[in-house]
Specification:
The chain has 222 residues and is an all-alpha fold. The chain has a single domain, classed as MetI-like (MetI-like fold), CATH 1.10.3720.10. Helix content is 83%, strand content 0%. The longest helix is centred in the first third of the chain and has 44 residues. The protein is flat and about 75 Å long. The model has no long low-confidence stretch (mean pLDDT 93).
Length: 222
């Protein structure tokens, strides 16, 4: 590698890291937090006796899981202005990613709740708990431990998916790499560097996931 390319790598590293810390990480955390709340609500509605609510929740999950995330972002950012709804790139990205996390996460949470044995419900009812009390005090805490591995995988995937926000002008790490490429004309070099940073971040999160799973296994292994 010649001296010019080495210098480009060195000069671009700090802007990419700044974009990751200032834009990619906040977008990921905000979207995942909101999406997780939406996932729990959607899962509980789908498991409820509220027929209309179940239909609405199933329709939402069907739409989000059945269409590309990039298309959803385009509809939110480029499509909604045609009906007078203009959103900031960050807000549009958060809405798109949160809806995606909510739909996929709801299936994880729903499966985790259904994995809890019927005996747990019966035990709760036998001591006078209502359905909501049983959910809050007994079922959801156990389901949360079951949900950790797949939800952690969803979080790691979301970190990488945030690169799609570059397509709606949100200046996260990948968008920053694109801007540097437009100046340096070194796409292979810059995109590879961005890929390495995404890989390092995903590897770090995978390590944290493994640590968390080991901690939680102490409460599930008997």
């Amino acid at each position: 590698m010649d001296e010019r390319k080495v210098q480009i790598l060195m000069d671009s590293l700090l802007p990419l890291l700044k974009a990751a810390v200032a834009f990619t990480v906040p977008l990921t955390l905000t979207s995942f937090a909101l999406g997780l709340v939406l996932a729990v609500i959607t899962a509980l509605v789908r498991l409820s006796h509220w027929r209309i609510g179940r239909l609405v929740a199933r329709f939402y999950v069907w739409i989000i899981r059945g269409t590309p995330l990039l298309l959803q972002l385009f509809i939110i950012f480029f499509g909604l202005p045609s009906i007078g709804i203009i959103l900031d790139p960050f807000i549009a990205s958060v809405i798109g990613f949160s809806l995606s996390v909510g739909a996929y996460g709801s299936e994880i949470v729903r499966a985790a709740i259904q994995s809890i044995s019927a005996g747990q419900w019966e035990a709760a009812y036998s001591i006078g708990m209502t359905r909501s009390q049983a959910l809050r005090r007994i079922i959801l805490p156990q389901a949360a431990r079951v949900s950790v591995p797949p939800l952690a995988n969803a979080f790691i995937s979301l970190v990488k998916d945030t690169s799609l926000a570059a397509s709606i002008t949100y200046v996260e790490m990948f968008r920053t790499a694109q801007e540097i490429v437009a100046i340096t004309f070194e796409p292979l070099l810059l995109y590879s560097e961005a890929g390495v940073l995404y890989l390092m971040l995903s590897t770090l999160l995978s390590g944290l996931q493994n640590f968390l799973e080991r901690r939680l296994s102490r409460y599930t292994t008997r």
